Please model this.
Amino acid sequence: MNIFRLPAIKSTFVFSNKQHQTPCHSPYLPVGKTSLFTKYISYLFFDLSTLPKEQVISSAMLKIYFNAPPCKGDPPALLGIQALAKPFEDCYTNYTSKPPMLAKTLKRVPLRKNGCSISVDITTLVKAWHAGKLMNSGLALVPVELETCGVLLFHSSNTPDHSRHPLLIVTTEPSKTNCYERKEYFSVGKRAGFSSTQEVWSYSIYSFIVANIGSKNTLVKLQASPNQINFMDEEPEIELRPGQIRVFVSNFFTRYNRLTFRLASQESGTGRIKIWLQARV
Model:
């Protein structure tokens, strides 16, 4: 398990009664509505590039800290958190140019009456960003209780106290890949024998491993097929002495593979081999 603590790398806010005014490097983020029907919306952005792509996100918590005082007017009971469809820029974005939000991502968060911060589970959203299913343009903190005339005040990414910057805490786990293994044993004679035909085109990677577990030198060759009927040899044919082991990997993309084997020309009697197919879906 790995835990990543990602501070917001930019933030800003916009307000409706001065639609062309552009806040810049604000130390606080207001969210809510005043008695003059001025609406305040704030924005946050977290850089996820440090999260390893091969890791699976198990949780993601947004933590934002209240300013002092935490609210002007009547404190609302709910806060809205919503994903942005397009990016914002501090010192450039204003109410007129504010980015659109993704409607289906709105999360209504109940607010406690006491406490210096709030934590919100946004795992589903961060997973979508991390997987590339949604573009990470940032988050909006929006008023959702318009009957209340109150503006919440949070610390921004420009607050001098870095310990109060908005924070995204992401927990990851190693990815669990689906692996497949098949083992077979065969006696080897003068006439060519064949392993089971394996359908391999759904595997992301695979190998055949052959061990000579008998006392006779054995010739082994990989074969490829589109239909389990017509097989093509893949050169070279490898001679395995007793105790030797060798990996066989196809050079072609075909639906089916198998191995063919026989005793070396100087040998007589019966040999013995073990074959593994090891694959990852």
DSSP finds one helix and 20 strands in the chain. The longest strand covers residues 55-73.
